[in-house]
């Protein structure tokens, strides 16, 4: 990827520079007999030739793409136009285009627009076009007969907008490339963590509870660290996508899969707002924490993601001991449902709903329904 997103514009502008130079040469030859000081005009045309060559090379290779060169080009273009008052009579200047032609002078406007954008291009167009009007001694408001300023301003505006669009497009491509590279690295690290550390922590947690006694404390520590590590992997995934303002919710939830946790999600990415994805992922992690600490030994959890266009539905179900009738209401009265309140609070802050369904001996199920916004391109492909 080129380091200068407007390099093609710079190179294309030099083709126009060459054509405008040839036009200026033909114009200079054609008006030789009409000039008051043709010798001075030929000397100035020699300066113009050297400057045209210098600008063409400097802009094409890149060394001249700065305000020193562009500023000098505008000054020289205006100076050449002002010299018309010396090399030609007042009546000739009034009835002809300013020497060394409007087309050649437009190169300075285009250079300013490429470097500075549409506003700078318009200002340069007004400045160079205004110089032509000054040489003639008056400003013809009949732009149908004399459109010099209109042409220059329009050129500066159009080329400036093209330059801004090119820079914006490259910035978006660069952000996407960085996000893709970070995502690929995260996926690699996630696989290594999942196949190594997470599996070991999960095994220690499971075996520690089976053995019981003093090892139960070790099992609790292992379970806590497993949950923290899964949350860390999920947070990295959100940060990766948030450069573009979106994240793949399916990938986030798959990061929570492991021994005792099965995740089912659509094969295609579920791209939603990164903040929304972060909150949903955190709510799911909280629900899985509940399974680890309250569902009983050997309990398995099942996470299901459903993509319904304008909403997503996430279900977290376990096959643990469940909650006996009346216990949930009693815990509410005693203020002992912090995790449940956290889940509900997160989802309701997104404009969604979270419902809990549980009974003794049949496990527990959370169902979270959240309205989502999607990237424009993602909606178009649905």
From TrEMBL:
<protein>
    <submittedName>
        <fullName>Two-component histidine kinase</fullName>
    </submittedName>
</protein>
<feature type="transmembrane region" description="Helical">
    <location>
        <begin position="40"/>
        <end position="61"/>
    </location>
</feature>
<dbReference type="InterPro" id="IPR045975">
    <property type="entry name" value="DUF5931"/>
</dbReference>
<keyword id="KW-1133">Transmembrane helix</keyword>
<keyword id="KW-0472">Membrane</keyword>
<keyword id="KW-0902">Two-component regulatory system</keyword>
<dbReference type="Pfam" id="PF02518">
    <property type="entry name" value="HATPase_c"/>
</dbReference>
<dbReference type="InterPro" id="IPR050482">
    <property type="entry name" value="Sensor_HK_TwoCompSys"/>
</dbReference>
<keyword id="KW-0418">Kinase</keyword>
<dbReference type="GO" id="GO:0016301">
    <property type="term" value="F:kinase activity"/>
</dbReference>
<feature type="transmembrane region" description="Helical">
    <location>
        <begin position="68"/>
        <end position="88"/>
    </location>
</feature>
<dbReference type="InterPro" id="IPR003594">
    <property type="entry name" value="HATPase_dom"/>
</dbReference>
<dbReference type="GO" id="GO:0000160">
    <property type="term" value="P:phosphorelay signal transduction system"/>
</dbReference>
<feature type="transmembrane region" description="Helical">
    <location>
        <begin position="108"/>
        <end position="135"/>
    </location>
</feature>
<feature type="domain" description="DUF5931">
    <location>
        <begin position="7"/>
        <end position="173"/>
    </location>
</feature>
<keyword id="KW-0808">Transferase</keyword>
<dbReference type="Pfam" id="PF19354">
    <property type="entry name" value="DUF5931"/>
</dbReference>
<keyword id="KW-0812">Transmembrane</keyword>
<feature type="domain" description="Histidine kinase/HSP90-like ATPase">
    <location>
        <begin position="279"/>
        <end position="373"/>
    </location>
</feature>
<dbReference type="InterPro" id="IPR036890">
    <property type="entry name" value="HATPase_C_sf"/>
</dbReference>
<feature type="transmembrane region" description="Helical">
    <location>
        <begin position="147"/>
        <end position="166"/>
    </location>
</feature>
């Amino acid at each position: 990827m080129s380091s200068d997103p407007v390099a093609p514009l710079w190179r294309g502008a030099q083709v126009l520079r060459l054509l405008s130079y040839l036009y200026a040469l033909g114009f200079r030859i054609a008006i030789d007999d009409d000039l008051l000081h043709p010798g001075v005009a030929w000397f100035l045309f020699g300066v113009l030739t050297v400057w045209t060559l210098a600008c063409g090379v400097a802009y094409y290779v890149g060394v001249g793409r700065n305000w020193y060169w562009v500023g000098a080009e505008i000054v020289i273009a205006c100076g050449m136009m002002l010299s018309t008052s010396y090399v030609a009579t007042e009546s000739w200047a009034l009835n002809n285009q300013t020497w060394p032609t409007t087309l050649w002078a437009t190169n300075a406007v285009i250079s300013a627009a490429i470097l500075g954008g549409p506003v700078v291009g318009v200002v340069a167009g007004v400045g160079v076009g205004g110089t032509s009007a000054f040489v003639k001694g008056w400003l013809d408001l009949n732009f149908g007969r004399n459109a010099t300023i209109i042409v220059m301003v329009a050129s500066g505006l159009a080329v400036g907008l093209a330059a801004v669009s090119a820079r914006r497009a490259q910035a978006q491509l660069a952000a996407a490339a960085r996000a893709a590279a970070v995502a690929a690295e995260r996926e690699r690290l996630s696989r290594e963590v999942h196949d190594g550390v997470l599996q070991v922590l999960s095994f220690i947690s499971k075996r520690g509870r089976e053995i019981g006694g003093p090892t139960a404390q070790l099992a609790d520590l292992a379970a806590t660290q497993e949950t923290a590590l899964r949350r860390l992997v999920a947070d990295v995934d959100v940060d990766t996508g948030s450069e573009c303002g979106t994240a793949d919710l399916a990938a986030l939830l798959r990061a929570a899969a492991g021994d005792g946790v099965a995740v089912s999600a659509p094969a295609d990415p579920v791209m939603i707002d990164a903040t929304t994805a972060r909150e949903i992922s955190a709510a799911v992690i909280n629900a899985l924490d509940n399974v680890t600490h309250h569902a009983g030994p050997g309990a398995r959890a099942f996470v299901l993601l459903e993509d319904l266009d304008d909403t997503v539905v996430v279900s977290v179900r376990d096959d643990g001991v469940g909650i006996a009738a009346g216990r949930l209401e009693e815990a509410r009265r005693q203020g002992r449902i912090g995790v449940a309140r956290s889940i509900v609070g997160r989802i309701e802050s997104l404009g969604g709903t979270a419902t809990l369904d549980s009974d003794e001996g049949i496990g527990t199920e959370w169902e979270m329904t959240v309205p989502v916004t999607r990237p424009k391109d993602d909606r178009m492909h649905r």
